[in-house]
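1st attempt posting a full record on here, be nice pls
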Amino acid sequence: MQPVPTADTVGNAELIRYIRAKIDQLLVVMGSLPLRPEELDDTQLIALDPIGIIADSFAEVIAHLNATNKRLDLARNEIRTILDTLGAAVVVLDLDDHVEDCNRLALDWFFGGGDRDLVLGHPATEVCTCAAALGEVRSRADGSSHTTSIHGRDVQVVASKICDDAGQHAQTVMLFTDIGEQKTIERHLQLYAEVFSHIGEGIMITDADNRIIEINDAVSRITGYARDELIGEKPGKLKSGLHEPTFYAGIWRTLRAQGYWQGEMFDRTRDGHVVPLLQTISEVRNADGQLTHRIAVMADISSMKEAQTRLDFLAHHDVLTALPNRLLFSDRLHHAIERAQRDKLALALLFIDLDRFKNINDSLGHHVGDLLLIEASRRLKSLARRADTVARFGGDEFVVLMESGATHDSATRLADKIVVAFKQPFTVTGTELHIGCSIGITLYPDDGTDAVSMLKNADAAMYRAKESGRDGHYRYTAELSAATNSKFELDNALRAAVRDGAFELHYQPIVDIKRGEVIACEALLRWPQAPAGARTPDLFVPVAEETRLIVPLGHWVVREALARMKAWQAEGLYLDYISVNISAVQMAQPDFPDSIIALLLESGVAGHHLQIELTENVLMGNIDLCSWVLTQLREHGIRTAIDDFGTGYSSLAYLKRLPIDNLKIDRSFIRDIPEDPNDCAIAAAVVSLARTLGMDTIAEGIETMEQQNYLARIGCDKVQGYLHSRPLPAADFVAYVRQHR
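the predicted structure (as tokens):
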């Protein structure tokens, strides 16, 4: 650099030339001079004030720089805000793994949520516990996406190189996206797929046009069709041909109205077999309410149907003779009376008791007696017409129901044939046995207009035949029974008793034989001042139901039972529950569930301390009503038991739908165990069925230790009956419970 001249070293002219040269250099650089330098003379140059121009230019430059810096700061803040609001963590590392930049989410995930200034510029190994993982990601910076796990967090990673002006790798930017929720969804989907594939029930999915789009393996197992044979087809491919078009129309109607249908259906498998299915069909709609799919869940209930058939047969047929038993005969008689009443026809009933059978049974043994009963049933059935019903009522009692063309003469002719035939010897185990029979005859409608009166009057006539010398028959007459003439008197007495509160409750213990103690009780209605011939509930309750007096009477029973339970609890006597019987008339009342719940709240007793008992016939009389009522009661904890189980008809498929806690085995199946194989088989079947459905069993009418021991062996742990105690007044019941605890 040349030394700057001064006035002492050079003249003024030389100094001006030097200054001008330097100014010219500045002006050329600044580009601010309005004229070219060669156009300026010294005077003009001084007049233009180049120093001022330079100063102004510097001021403009500084202002431009400040504005540019502000824009850069704003852009930097915008970028920072964008990065911090990303739903992904961003980390920038240099080639030495120093942290060049990161966003807020990265600070939280990888750097302990600290301040950014304490992280930037530092080696990742100093500020991050997952530095090795970051380094591994940096080493794979190829712009591709992959998944990994960092600190237990599932993330998707994209790492890319940042190059300098020379194209050299200078930094690496890494983007981490949390895919934990996606992984969870994937796991759930995988689980659903596993459930779909392995669940025992068949699942079929159709589109909105009812075309099959997916099935699981169970559908193939049930129907025999491979997946590719059903995809694209309609479910109608499986129709059995056993259902009328109205059946399917009903399904579609229910689906349109409710979006859901459940019921039993018969379908046909690939090899032509018919299979019973319990199906549930549900509609699936999108957010706009448009139908997108239907899902059908099907269960093969063949084994359940077989068990039901077996149980029905055991419950309604005599195992020894294969004839209908009392239960089935009573049902057939009931329906026959309905048909006869509708069509103005007559019926005839023959009640047959074998004469001298007890002597043979006692002297030669039960085995010979059983064989004789089998031969007697065969002979009796051979004499009856095909349209007649022949049944064994138990012991040595048989009945014949004549429907078609029944008259007094035809009934008498059949009775004569039976008497003559039974006088002929029976050959059993090579021995000729001689018995006979006495027969009572009743005709509908002359001798009775309902099943009870028909049977009762025929039984009375049969005893008159025995009194008349046996080996004969007798037609019922009104003089044989005074009960039919007292019905009006019983009705009046019952109304007065309900009005005056003349009833009381007795309580029969329910015993857990494993624990050896009373765990609950059944409240049983008693009428101390009942007219002669109507002292027991089975005599006066039917009249109360017929006259609807059972509604106020049943309301009193529940209130009294709950009040008694509350009083016992206050005295320190705690039972699992108290059980009350409910009739079909009560169940049919629109306010029945509300009235029970109101009584429960009034008493202060918890719902699970109350159990209602219903018979199978009540349940099956209106399954939808019962399902609704029992569900309402279950919401308040109230238990439900099926009383006299096995003595009526029920569908096991519907039984599965109902909130049932206990099945009570009827005393008619308990009375002859363990000697009677029929009753033993029925009891074991009921216990097994209850266990399968998640219910408990209670055996009624226990009178001997042999009965109790057998029931314990087959898994029935709860019993009630005279072996432990008859129904007791409240005070006696309390004393009994305290004595046996």
